[in-house]
Amino acid sequence: MSPVLTSLLCRASIPELPPSVNHIWVQGKGRTYKPKAVLVWQETARLLLAHGKTISEPYTGKVALFITLYVKNNRRMDIDNRIKCLQDCLEPAGLLKDDSQVWLLEVGRVQDNEGKEERVEMEIWAIKDPSLFMDALRQRWFSGACGVDIMHVDPTEIERPKRKAKVKEPVIIRTVKTSKRRG
After folding, report:
1. Is there a smaller number of Cβ atoms within 10 Å at the N or the C end of the chain?
2. Average pLDDT of each block of 10 consecutive residues along the chain (183 residues)?
3. Angle (CA) 150 153 154, round 5°
4. Quick one: 81 exposed, middle or buried, by C-beta within 10 A (0-12, 13-18, 19+)?
């Protein structure tokens, strides 16, 4: 099999988690704008990505983006909402011509209870053929080569989390017809 990943374009560790896509743009005073906290995070990310890059000119081919979000606790968070703000930093950092060059994206979340600060660790790799890469990725995950034990279980046998559900009384809505007589 021919090589799938051709070269590492960038490796970076960025303090703090990226702002959620829900908070990148806000409206106020008759306009839509990015809050100062978002601009500061993006500028920090841009500088760290530019420092971690291994190329002098923006890459023009297809890339694979590996992102790990390190969080302190088990809070609810949609990890896909954190990716957009980070991808928007790739072009200004001089890594890519456009973030549409990202063909493959692997994102994970790690709960880090060792007192370390929340952060994002990211690698960008040039890829030769996305279909070969997907085959290699599937093989890695489902062959046990990555150290993950896969157990095949009937989905109906998986125990559902127990939640304390509040039972509410059913609400009955009745409509009453009123008629207005014209006189």
Report:
1. C
2. 72 91 77 85 93 92 91 82 89 92 89 80 86 68 58 61 58 58 56
3. 150
4. middle
Residue 50 domain flag: yes
In the numeric block, the tokens 């954190």 are attached to: 82
5-15 and 119-127 beta bridge pairing: antiparallel
How many folded domains does the chain comprise?
1
Q: What pLDDT is attached to residue 59?
A: 93
Which residue type is seen at 46? Answer: R
Domain assignment present for residue 136? The answer is yes
* pTM for this model (two decimals): 0.70
For the domain that residue 153 is a member of, what is the CATH number?
3.30.1330.70
Residue 176 covered by a domain? no
Q: What angle do CA 149, 155, 156 make, to 5 degrees?
A: 140
